[in-house]
Design goal:
341 residues, alpha/beta, Thrombin, subunit H, 9-stranded mixed β-sheet, 6 helices, 17 strands
Length: 341
Amino acid sequence: MKLDEFDFELPKELIAQTPLPERDHSRLLVLNKENGDISHRHFQDIIDYLNPGDTLVLNDTKVLPARLIGVKEETNAVIEILLLKETGENTWEALTKPAKRVKVGTILSFGEGKLKAKCVAEKEEGIRLFQFLYEGIFLEILEELGTMPLPPYIHEQLKDQDRYQTVYAKNLGSAAAPTAGLHFTKELLAKIAAKKVNIAYITLHVGLGTFRPVNVEKIEEHHMHSEFYRMTREVAQLLTDTRASGHRIIAVGTTSVRTLETIMNKYGKFQECSGWTDIFIYPGYQFHGVDALITNFHLPKSTLIMLVSAFAGKEKIMTAYKEAVTQKYRFFSFGDSMFIQ
């Protein structure tokens, strides 16, 4: 398939720069993937589409304040790094800008020397491997010196850092938020549970794939970077029971989809496990672990719009996106939401 097939026109003013004051007041476009019917609601109405016995699957990853701005010790040149994943004790892969200025042996200083990073390996696509030097607790230093790694299309400063975390964020390790979950409040989740809808938590630490555009004309040639995932025994059993009883598994976000599909592809069932996934889902993919999907509106030509196109059909997604633009929905991370059933 050609990359241009996943392009669409989006006015810049529809790219949400800040979150709404209330998480669940965002708009909700409901798409029936069987017949293409579209309706317009608000996110708190999602409860009307969830049935007793269904299981809602949420990604409980927590975003690291992973963006650090420092200087090269020898030249004072400003260098920005984005932590992607820990590869060993005090050693991290990081997207580096400008990477050409950072070679093996380069030492970066952050917070006037409170944290230092020595480049120990050069990788492709602007990635460097750093060994960190510090006194104290790394995550506490990161909380002090780092900032939330907001996507490059967001130009406004985020006043409340917690608004780039879900209310159920628990397991620290992501370089980006699983943004479909940003619409939930604790009160809404309580109402959903009271309706006898099961709520399950899995973990996928969002990594480099979120930041990398697709740069090949034939999408089949695109390579996804791997991300860490985990599913507990209790959740695996709950999902198995949900399917056995004829109820739906409803994924919140593309990260939940990728985790569920990875596990089903590898084991043929849900089971306790953890590992790394580089699954790339695009039209033609057959889904095994997901019946419905809550998601945001995604970037043109992105792997995320390819995934939702695989789930609902490319023509139906493109029609829904055109409708969303016409109705002036807010797009991307802090934007409005879609429910595909």
